[in-house]
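hey can u check if this looks right to u? its 374 residues, i copy pasted from the old doc so theres a chance i mangled smth
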Amino acid sequence: MDLTYTHAVLENAAQTRRYFAKFERIIGHLGAVANISLDEKLITTMEVKMLKGYLQALSNTFTALSYKYLMSDRVSLQSGDQFSIDKTQSGFPIFRELMQMTADVTQADKHLKSLPSPERLKKDMINHILTEKSAPSQLQFAMSQRIYYEYLAQKDLFLTQNHPEILWVGMDVKDVRRSYLIHWAAYDSQTNLPVIYFMELEDTASRALPHDERRWPRVQAHLMAQSVSGLKLLTIAQGFDRDFDTLHPKMLRRFHLGPMHSHAYTEQRGPLRDVLAQASGEAGLDWALAWTVESLVSESITKEKVGIFKTAERQVYHLDKVDFQMADSGASDINRALILPHRAYQVLEEKYKSDFKGVQKYVVGKNAKILSYN
């Protein structure tokens, strides 16, 4: 397949370092955006805590990738071994980069045993400089790979699949209903974007879900199999509701982190292209990150026969029956936002305000303080 129209290889070391530095700044702002979303009652306190954990893992993943490709321009590599980003759709690394990192995590200890120690590499570098009178490129590359594998072995990372975890919320003693929050995440292979999921559910079985060796593994496998951006929340929730008679998904929420648009790295289309082009005069102010939150909420229940003598509770989810576009989206609510620097926001407000009607703007000020505008 010819991917030159959608993928870009960052071959230059300076370009690669600027790319990772830009993402480090952007991801650093997302925790503050999560806090503002909490203040605006768009998400809950528990979700903010879990969301920040995923954001830290995503930051660790970008740091690890930056170490991996720190010295890649110093040695001769195959084209498939060079760092690639999705330049048209997401601005994030392509799925293959995360898939390779996921594989590298399992082999990190083996690589660390085979590579010389940092002290040995530093000593060899000094000897090379003194004897060869040239830059020790191969040794520098070896050091960067060692740092990469050390980082993989030590840090929590955002991988291609981040399996479901479950948190206790509470219990209705009268009806014997336990409430849980399940969270999980994936790096979507179609969109090249990180996607985070939260599900609030009630458990009416006699045995608690986290300790049920029959249901909990099935729940984890089911949720990961449905973690595809192309599926509507309604499809995911209703499928789960039918497959587990004693589990009742009351709320399903999905965060799409990105796309990231940058005048220097991506080929965005539409008015955003013009906004970033006009805001690109000052370094580091030519970007915008989309932040989309979809929510699906149960509004009532029905009873359905599941056997000769048994019935099961089924959820009826709230959909806007007046707004046909919202009803077709399969979500009760969709909150679309842009996180962008103050310079880009000024251009947007002055010339392209009507094109972004209904999009929340989280504006990063000169002191890194973030303000929210409708």
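The longest strand covers residues 287-305.
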